[in-house]
Amino acid sequence: MNRSVLTEVLHSPTLHVAPGSLTVATSWWHPTRGLVDCPAHRLLSAHARQAGLGTASRSLSNEDLRGDLPTAPTTVFTVSYERPEGGHRGLALAAHSDDATAISFARRQIESWRAVLRTRRVLHVTASDPLAPGPSNCPPNASVPAQTAADATHRWRVCGCPASVRCPSAENTERALHRFLERGDDVVVVTPPAAGPGAGAGRPVHGNLRTVSTPQQAETLAVTDPDRLAFVVAPGAVVSEAADILKVLRRRHPRLRGQHPHEWCYTMDDLHTVVGAALAQSDRLLVVGHDTTPVTRTAITQVARIPLPVRAVTTLDRLRPDDVDAATITVVDATSDGRDLRELRQVLDGLGPASHVRRQAHSAKETPRPAFRPLSSG
User: Fold this and answer.
1) Which one of 256, 328, 342, 375 has the fewest beta carbons within 10 angstroms of its own beta carbon?
2) pTM score, two decimals?
3) Residue 207 Rama label (left phi>0; alpha psi -120 to 50; beta)
4) What is the rounded CA–CA span in Å between residue 349 and residue 318?
5) Whole-angstrom Cα distance, residue 65 to residue 76?
6) Could you please report the per-residue DSSP string of 275-331?
7) Which domains does the chain have, with CATH numbers?
8) pLDDT tens, 132-158?
């Protein structure tokens, strides 16, 4: 792809740009390459507005753009590249030829983004559909309802599932917790650090309740009566981390009783798995939007351990050339409607040929089969 990149300064006697502003091309006509599409034009507009310049976005496909008119009233800075499937894409910024500030800005922008034009793989990490058969015991064959910005703070259950769908994991945990306490058991709430608030958030809890968050804490847990010890797994726990804790508790206390694994929610475990796999293959992490979701919380927690460069793309002017100078980028969506994610995807498509890959993990709990009953004789 790099061999096809052309960076050129063209001029136009017909295009007029007011001083103090820029025209951002949504497409333009190259003298020899023909039509050049510009999917990343919103990126240039965002940076121009951030710099205090006025912007107008429009197609320049009917304008006379040539390289042999240095005295023309408008100067157009361009870069273009050939697409593997045919056609051309690129960027173009037009400024008044006597506007030194706009000319300097346009030149720097094209040079900066030209330096990072390349083929890249983009991994989009998403939550598995909680309405699909399996995790959370939720109904099958439906799509996740759209959420609005107004209810963004209440979009997610403690287990990681959308609040708009029923997930019984929190109810199951609370029910098991109170059942064990009413029996007089000491109850351990297994709450790895990635879990949300602890169990028993509904009815008041009366009894001997302890929280264990790591295998090391499980090793040192003091128990009065090992025969009266029980556990529940907090909603929002990463099941694989909870299992490591339970392994220690079961080794130390073989008579440990606890909540049935079929009542656990695997949403956060799936996110933990898929986010970790994506980040291990990536050079950058981009977090799109302002909201906080289970996916973004998982990604931010894991990326701190690697470490990996992270950029919060709350607006397009936050995106810098260094943020996309990578062969593989993981993108997670922290928006309520996905609009910002679609804009970023379009920008990446305009900064070199991009392969978009959607990554998901899905743990499906099988429905228990009915007990076998032999046929009666006679």
Assistant:
1) 375
2) 0.82
3) left
4) 17
5) 8
6) HHHHHHT-SEEEEESS---HHHHHHHHHHTTTT--EEEESSGGG--HHHH-SSEEEE
7) 2-117 (no CATH), 122-157+267-359 (3.40.1010.20), 169-263 (3.40.1010.20)
8) 444 333 333 333 333 333 444 577 888
